Amino acid sequence: MKTSLLLLICFFNLAIVAAAGTDTLKLQQHLVAITGTAQARNHQNPEALNQVAHYIAKEFGQLKGQVREQVYTVADTEYRNVILSTGPADAPRLVIGAHYDVCQDQPGADDNASGVAGLLELARLLNNHTLPYRIDFVAYTLEEPPYFRTEHMGSYIHAKSLKEEQAVVKGMISLEMIGYFKDEKKTQRYPVAPMKLFYGSRGNYIAIVQRFGNGSFGRSFLRNYKNEAVLPVKSLRAPAFVTGVDFSDHLNYWHFGFDALMITDTSFYRNANYHQPTDTIHTLDLQRMAQVVDGVYATVLNLK
């Protein structure tokens, strides 16, 4: 009887741990909804973008916190960021973001439905925790060309608003392509060939990318993430001019003086489906994608 009771308790505890982690079924649900628009969710199809924005807002709306849209106009067309803010309104804030638009006509499962699905799961997982800081979960529009590196990027609009509010920002985390992994040799490329000697040729890790001089937030996040992650974690801290280092929404937070980093599967340095019609859900590894999200979740809980 005692043995049976002990086994039952162990099973119950394991069930609690499993329930606390990222749900791959929810990730899949989000990926299907985000990639399933009739038209590609690019700047030329605002109806598709609005459909995805509505889905994100609906998912955010099931959680505690304030949901709002940050609407702005480009070329007489309205675009919107979708934001869920949780925690004390006057506390320092952490920004976690991912862009939901795509480049041209492609489903964009890894780029960047994977990041948005991860964002939605992080919001759900963190929603039951009382933290001493505010979190802004932000789904950005217009990250992709032709608006990349312009003031029309959704992340530029959001970062600028924080600067104008004189908000105290702990740091920003950009989730940029977190679903593609390969274990075979020669599946990982680099902007500089000798990097392969240090990072290896297998695309089986998640990367945390920062620029030189990024501040204490990035160092603390990286240290804690390495402690929490199940996946191999590799860090790149380099000048912003190194190709790929600033290839996402974190670059706009740098522009306004905020610490920011990118979590990525390294994009086109690994995934040949980048900006192609072949960037579909079927190419993604949901188990390892969930492990990426779990690592961020545990790290955020331990932020000081």
TrEMBL record:
Residues 81-298 form the Peptidase M28 domain. Keywords: Signal. Residues 1-20 form the signal peptide. SUPFAM superfamilies: Zn-dependent exopeptidases. InterPro entries: M28_fam, Peptidase_M28. One of its GO terms (molecular function) is metalloexopeptidase activity. GO terms for biological process: proteolysis. This is M28 family peptidase. It comes from Pontibacter burrus.
